[in-house]
From TrEMBL, chain A:
Compositional bias (Basic residues): 51-61
Superkingdom field: Eukaryota
GO biological process, one term: DNA repair
Protein name, per record: Coiled-coil SMC6 And NSE5 INteracting (CANIN) domain-containing protein
UniProt region (Disordered), positions on chain: 45-65
Signal peptide from the UniProt entry: none
A Gene Ontology cellular-component term: nucleus
Protein's organism: Cajanus cajan (Pigeon pea)
TrEMBL record, chain B:
InterPro entries: SNI1
Superkingdom classification of source: Eukaryota
Higher taxonomy: Eukaryota, Viridiplantae, Streptophyta, Embryophyta, Tracheophyta
PANTHER family: NEGATIVE REGULATOR OF SYSTEMIC ACQUIRED RESISTANCE SNI1
MF annotations from Gene Ontology: transcription cis-regulatory region binding
Name of this protein: Negative regulator of systemic acquired resistance SNI1
Cleavable signal peptide: none
GO terms for cellular component: nucleus; Smc5-Smc6 complex
Example GO BP: negative regulation of DNA-templated transcription
Length: 452, 474
């Protein structure tokens, strides 16, 4: 095997298959490189330190297209070292098996004035609408967009139609029907013409229990706990149905119309936030980032100012005790965007409450910072992975919280803790995540602090 | 805080270096989870330094390039979606083109707002189209760099290929990546074009990225537009078919993706397909708006020889729809923007309706003729209707009528809402009822001309809607 030209995709295989002699050779070559890397890391740290005094930052040339073969080799070695301590990815299975979907019942033609009144129209000789074909006809009206036109022009959405469209959105197995009914509901909910009332009458609104029931049928594990169960990520459960997208979209639309109609109570809205955070934890939802983010932003802003204070804390406490203290708890914090002051506040709160569950018997943020500063990184038993988690949590707690900016004590302790870290962690520690602690956080966040 | 400008400056440089270092490191350890983590951290870092702070600065071009590189070459769903979202958020936060003074309450008169163009801003599209940039084959190596017009065309061609496969598969991440890239580019075109178009000033409109792209000699404009038409029709078909069952079937087939990744992909894919459809419609609408702006400028004498004449998109669309009659229903079903939808239907109908002979035409009636209602009225003439059916088929006529009626309803009901505010309710309602009556009688005429015609479900739905509106409003 030619050591000079490792191909990227071979890296993994080589580690698994290569005979022991090769391994030895790798190590010999690797140690030189490791030393180099060590120096480079130290240079970086030095550079960081100097920057405070140095106004002229050295421009680092971006060369992300040139692949340094040495670095590739180094990666191999590092991986070989790190393998003894494999860190699991974030990810929790929050969906179990789906339950049986309720049958889709079409509204009775007699109860639906829209269709009923047409039966006697002379045009019905052409349209040929009959009692038993009402369902297919209604589907056509929905899919081709007539239903929302009629709602807007006639100023009325009847109860049977509203219920039918709602159930179709959540339980239909046909994508076209799902999408059209979701479009229909979103259109009638978000008509912007009048701020505080609908331009037309909607006879029926779903309640939270309807939405919760749907989620239950989709297989959502309301009682999940990422710490209790092993994360069997590739297990054979089928996962959520495609209808979940409509569900998320519908929740978002409901949240945006609070001035017209408050569909959820504060407690219910709290549960929705918790559910959305749980969805972020499931790797199956990685592709729905935009949808989930919009939903999160909408639901967080659904609360009134009065409700928000206590709700934010309730949510944070709930999440903190449900999620294991590994990369998952970081994901719960980082999935909350920093786009608005509300979500920032929530992010900070979740980080804070999670920290509390990490340290038993502490009463305040100061105490957490104090006990963290006491950790000796040179100690062999020091768990860098835990360190890393604490660091990310602390950073989010402090930096996302506008109130802390006015608290000089916490701020000073935080800065001292960062200094403590940067002086004590040396790159010679090859234990995984030691370098990560260096790289990810300090390089820029310490600098961030200086300007605050 | 004493001297924010100088401290910010070195801070800026420091952050950039650190972030790029992180990115560089991630590049060297490909196919490794750490590399992925590093890239995600890189995206978070850019967000934290540019978007989150109240007075954040836009990232440098290098940083932008690095994010764009991730969107174009990313191999994990998390990274692709993450970089897409970041780019979109950055564009929202730091627009390249905007109208100043739009917050002004009197901004309805466009004279008060001024177009601001941030010249130094990074853009994913090269705006000097004939700049000699050899991208071509080495695309992967330079994927952080902006696309030139020909690479945009290549992207569109790739999309057509993806969708034309008989069984659209969710077995790889590439289709999703290309669709998100395309969606992002349309957002870029839109953010650039809409404020320029709002100025109603041709010298601004012609400088838009879209106009430069279409005018580039590196692309075959007609081919590009035909590809776009193909994509929108293919997508319409895919979305109508039971794709969801397809996706689940694919799971059992051989795939390089893990089960988990596969289910994430199939959960995202249908949404992304629909969004791609919306994006391509936006692109087509913008191009037609640009065509209209150009036409207006031409009449007013503002165009120069540099504005090389281009076939208006609507003509290309009409030709395509005339040539492939099967695509009429799928295209009309998916294309929802009422103004242009109506225009397409009206022009399509008028292309085949036998024009009233010169002798019977009163000169003052003529201008009214070319509207949708004018076309509906022509159905009272049996010979004209007969020849129309003969030329385009009775099914296509039904589709055109029904969709035209729907588009006209949307326009009228939108006008109605404005009238309600202005207190002119009566006029709007009577126009609506008139439209419904005219539509019903046109349909009756169509039926009496061809007694064996099968009435399609969309025709029935349109008649139902018209009759319901009449009974509600009168």
């Amino acid at each position: 095997m030619d050591m000079n030209d490792p191909l990227d995709f071979e890296v993994e295989d080589a580690l698994l298959k290569s005979p022991p002699i090769n391994n030895k050779r790798k190590k010999i070559i690797g140690l030189d490189d490791l030393l180099q890397d060590h120096y480079r890391e130290q240079d970086k740290l030095l550079e960081k330190g100097n920057k405070k005094a140095n106004t002229k930052a050295k421009k680092k040339k971006s060369s992300y297209d040139d692949k340094d073969s040495k670095e590739a080799k180094l990666t191999r070695i590092l991986k070989a070292f790190g393998e003894e301590q494999e860190i699991p990815l974030w990810g929790v299975k929050v969906f179990g098996d789906q339950k049986a979907f309720p049958p889709l019942e079409f509204p009775d033609l007699g109860s639906c004035n829209l269709l009923q009144s047409f039966l006697n129209n002379k045009l019905n000789s052409v349209v040929e609408l009959t009692e038993d074909k009402g369902d297919i006809f209604l589907e056509g009206l929905l899919v081709n967009g007539w239903l929302s036109k009629l709602a807007f022009l006639c100023g009325h959405v009847e109860k049977p139609v509203a219920i039918w469209a709602f159930n179709t959105m959540l339980y239909s197995s046909k994508e076209e029907l799902r999408r059209s009914s979701s479009d229909f509901w979103c259109a009638i909910l978000s008509s912007e013409r009048e701020v505080d009332r609908f331009p037309f009458k909607i006879d029926w609104f779903p309640e939270y229990t309807d939405l919760r029931r749907a989620l239950d049928i989709f297989g959502f594990l309301f009682t999940f706990s990422s710490s209790a169960e092993p994360n069997n990520l590739d297990s054979d459960t089928e996962g959520p149905p495609q209808n979940i997208r409509s569900w998320i979209r519908f929740i978002t639309a409901c949240c945006l119309i609070r001035s017209k109609k408050a569909i959820f109570s504060a407690v219910e809205a709290e549960e929705i936030v918790e559910i959305i955070i749980c969805l972020f934890l499931d790797r199956q939802f990685q592709g729905l980032l935009v949808l989930l983010n919009d939903c999160m932003e909408a639901i967080v802003n659904y609360f009134t100012d009065q409700e928000w204070c206590s709700s934010c804390e309730n949510i944070a406490k709930f999440i903190a005790c449900r999620v294991s203290k590994d990369l998952n708890c970081i994901q719960t914090v980082e999935c909350i965007s920093e786009a608005s002051s509300r979500s920032k506040q929530l992010r900070s709160a979740v980080a804070y409450q999670t920290l509390f569950t990490c340290f038993d018997g502490v009463n305040s943020g100061e105490e957490i910072l104090r006990s963290l500063t006491a950790i000796n990184f040179k100690d062999k038993s020091c768990d860098f992975f835990k360190m890393y988690i604490h660091l990310v949590l602390i950073e989010n707690w402090v930096l996302s919280n506008s109130l802390i900016e006015d608290n000089p004590v916490i701020y000073e302790m935080f800065c001292r803790y960062l200094q403590h870290c940067s002086t004590l962690i040396s790159a010679t520690n090859l234990r995984s995540y030691a370098s990560k602690v260096n790289e990810t956080t300090f390089l820029f966040f310490t600098l961030d602090l200086v300007t605050v | 805080m004493e001297n924010p400008s100088s401290s910010e400056r070195w801070n800026r440089a420091g952050i950039d270096d650190s972030m790029l270092a992180m990115f560089d490191a991630s590049e060297t350890k490909d196919a490794h989870q750490d590399a992925l983590d590093d890239r995600i951290t890189f995206l978070d870092a850019v967000r934290a330094s540019s978007i989150v702070p109240e007075h954040g600065k836009p990232p440098t071009s290098k940083i932008y390039g690095a994010i764009f590189h991730m969107l174009r070459t990313g191999k994990s769903l998390e990274l692709i979606v993450g970089s897409y979202k970041l780019l979109v958020d950055l564009d929202k936060r730091f627009p390249r083109v905007y109208l100043s003074g739009t917050d002004d309450s009197r901004s309805s008169s466009n004279s008060s707002s001024k177009l601001v163009v941030v010249k130094e801003a990074w853009s994913p599209i090269i705006d000097c189209p004939d700049n000699a940039h050899a991208v071509g084959e080495a695309g992967d190596k330079r994927s952080g760099e902006p696309l030139d017009p020909s690479s945009f065309h290549v992207l569109i061609e790739e999309l057509t290929e993806i969708f034309s496969e008989t069984k659209f598969q969710a077995a790889s991440i590439e289709p999703l990546r290309n669709m998100l890239l395309f969606q992002y580019l349309v957002i870029v075109f839109e953010d650039d074009f809409l404020p320029r178009n709002a100025t109603l000033n041709w010298s601004m409109q012609r400088e838009s990225l879209l106009s430069l792209l279409l005018g580039s000699r590196k692309i075959n404009y007609k081919g590009l537009m035909k590809d776009c038409m193909a994509i929108i029709c293919q997508l319409s078909q895919i979305l109508q078919s039971e794709l969801s069952n397809h996706l689940e079937l694919q799971e059992s087939s051989e795939s390089k993706l893990s089960k988990n990744c596969h289910s994430a992909l199939s959960l995202a894919l249908l949404g992304v397909l629909k969004d791609t459809c919306v994006s391509i419609e936006k692109l087509l609408v913008m191009i037609m708006d640009l065509d209209m702006a150009r036409k207006k400028a031409n009449i007013e004498g503002h165009t120069t020889r540099a504005d090389s004449p281009r076939t208006p998109l609507i003509d290309i669309i009409l030709d395509e729809l005339a040539y492939y009659k099967d695509s009429v229903p799928v295209f009309l079903k998916i294309f929802s923007e009422p103004k242009w939808k109506l225009e397409i239907v009206v022009q399509y109908l008028w292309k085949y309706i036998t024009k009233p002979s010169v002798r019977t035409r009163k000169s003052n009636d003529y201008t009214e003729d070319s509207t949708f209602v004018g076309a509906l009225k022509c159905f009272s003439n049996k010979t004209s209707t007969k020849s129309l059916i003969k030329k385009i088929g009775v099914d296509v006529v039904q589709f055109l009528l029904a969709h035209g009626f729907q588009a006209q309803l949307s326009i009228l009901s939108k006008g109605n809402a404005d009238d309600n505010i202005a207190g002119n309710k009566e006029g709007g309602v009577s126009a609506l009822v008139d439209l419904c009556h005219t539509f019903i009688s046109a349909f009756d005429n169509l039926r009496s001309t061809d007694e064996h015609m099968e009435i399609l479900s969309i025709g029935k739905e349109a008649l139902f809607t018209a009759a319901t509106i009449i009974s509600m409003k009168s």
